[in-house]
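ok so heres the complex, two chains, lmk if somethin looks off
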Amino acid sequence: MAWTRDAMLALDARDPVAASRDAFDLPPGVIYLDGNSLGALPRATRARLAQVVDREWGVDLIRSWNSADWITLPTRVGDLIAPLIGADAGEVIAADSTSANLFKLAAGAVTMQRRQNAGQGRRVILSEPGNFPTDLYVMQGLADLLGDVELRTVPAEGLADALTPDVALLLLTHVHYKTGRVHDMAALTAKAHAVGALALWDLSHSAGALAVDLNGCGADLAVGCGYKYLNGGPGAPAFLFVARRHQDALHPPLSGWMGHAAPFAFGDDYQPAPGILRHLCGTPPVIGLSALEEGVKVMAGADRDALFAKSRRLGDLFLELVDQRLGAHGFQVLCPRDSARRGSQVSLGHDQGYAIVQALIERGVIGDFRAPEVLRFGFAPLYIRYVDIWDAVDHLADIMETGLWREARFHERAAVT
Amino acid sequence: MAWTRDAMLALDARDPVAASRDAFDLPPGVIYLDGNSLGALPRATRARLAQVVDREWGVDLIRSWNSADWITLPTRVGDLIAPLIGADAGEVIAADSTSANLFKLAAGAVTMQRRQNAGQGRRVILSEPGNFPTDLYVMQGLADLLGDVELRTVPAEGLADALTPDVALLLLTHVHYKTGRVHDMAALTAKAHAVGALALWDLSHSAGALAVDLNGCGADLAVGCGYKYLNGGPGAPAFLFVARRHQDALHPPLSGWMGHAAPFAFGDDYQPAPGILRHLCGTPPVIGLSALEEGVKVMAGADRDALFAKSRRLGDLFLELVDQRLGAHGFQVLCPRDSARRGSQVSLGHDQGYAIVQALIERGVIGDFRAPEVLRFGFAPLYIRYVDIWDAVDHLADIMETGLWREARFHERAAVT
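and the predicted structre for the whole thing:
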């Protein structure tokens, strides 16, 4: 059956999470398929930030650390994120950036392994080529710093076999930023454990986009991003997860005062706080955490099963429409067609990808481009409608049929995933 | 001569930087002597954040990385801070927290020393007991992580002698957070260099409070706080300085994608960006950096010489008034009396310090308390008036004379310096 725009409108009319779109301020005339890069602005965030800035900072000043409960923001936001990723309360904290959190957990993991497996030569961090760059870069920096640690990258299909007894840590991004491919978290974590390695999962493109079950998979550690599907705002604080069973043994290498057992005793000797709190480092970024809390609240208030089912359906329909309308125009499907193996995005390949993305942006259809030839379209299920999928593909078909993409203005663009 | 309130009003009338107070939103009825802990809200920050949130994030979304120039915020803010601390453009960047930046620079410094002095056994980080806790804690974490590095603490008066050839890095806080004592940056840096060590200065209580001349002192590295005298808001991003001569040789241990030479090429191999940019790690916190930019702009627009002269005068007058009015009440002066040796704060000791600070806060005079018995009063020269000093000491005298401090409500208070 060929899809129609009316059929999409009918799907929207029946969508059990359609109302969550009303929680966002979305600019008119824009179809925003880049929520996997920067999530949209929740309406509640404006009022919250006015409250934080005008009243809490401006009037109550230093007293707000207590009176406005600034001091518990990192754990409060962490506990809100926890159910989205299959974690328990007390296992997640919002802090620093994804990159810094990768360093913190990987450094903590390899030194914990070193202590617990003295002399066993467990010194490899295993990842895959083409992982999101910061994951690889941060591990290269850690390896350079420690000297006795090696980053080894093996293509996805060889990862299971590459889990050998010299591996201390498996580090993978759950949903690939470029292709949208989902790793089998349960199987790879189990395989890692079988050889004595720990598994650290980067959930940047997962949290808030699809069902994640860290504890169900036995995951050890995880990090993730606050500014994509969690709608925390540009450069929002990130989060990290440490499974309860590791919390006492994992030492934070960035042992700042906010992770101290008694930060306001101002003693000279570091004593890690119990639980997840020790993974705080410096003073929490109050304004950013407050915005992130509002973003996560929108998601926490929605029906997650319905939301993640919608994610998958949006991607499926986008691909069906690509087949139906774009067959003649040289696109490759680079993401998995099976929605169980795909994040909430569709990735297409085209040798004129950059120009095509620019032409779409000029029409208000915002996706993004990743070199050398990937067009990415992300489907934030809280605010993307079925009709948006139709309209986006309709614009794309029109641009290709008319050749209008050849006229797109080329301009340099920082592409912050 | 005994000071009077009218004499203070006369000083305010002649104050060349008095007008800078108008740049702030200060709550009525409050004398805010805690700007050394959390700076006040600049009026311009509200409008700026509304612009960033409503327009740049809400409407322009991902495009704002270019159109609103989000991508250059870290270097732009760094270049605004540079002249406040005697650094050149391109030597300062705003990023992460003070604690994280301490780790980044200290780890970079000891590994640079290791490479450049192979086999010389230079493995000590020298600091002082009672330094701000996070400085010590972070170095303890770094020493634990690296194994071959030792944190050694020596009281201030012994530091020059403790600079021996096994020292890789001297780490000191320029203005002591508790006593306000200023280290001789030029002399200690020179002594460090004489034994082949590098000097890393924590400017958290210096930047925006007193004249700092990093390059004039030959300093190698520095970090500092955005939320105190720079008025960047609660948990604002911090900054770091790397002297130009070290920029090529210093490798960032937290080698995230934003410090890569070509972050948007998405390659697998880390290549550090040239200059100060490599010390970025994750995606910059846009909202926090925007607020910080407004805070720094207020200071950048003021006459720095007049501002820092006022800092010293405010502290001198506060001490004179303490002598004049509080002689009978058992206060000790814990800060240096010589304003050339004192940051923009006064520290008093009193065995009932906690209760006295609470009684002051109930009257709207906000200073803070540091265990076991230190009362701190900070003088942010942009918005504290001479008459505020009078009024604060007047309240303090009244509380002591009437014994009202005995009735202060005791409540737990997180004291975020």
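quick notes: Chain A has two domains: 5-32+303-407, 50-300. thats all i got rn
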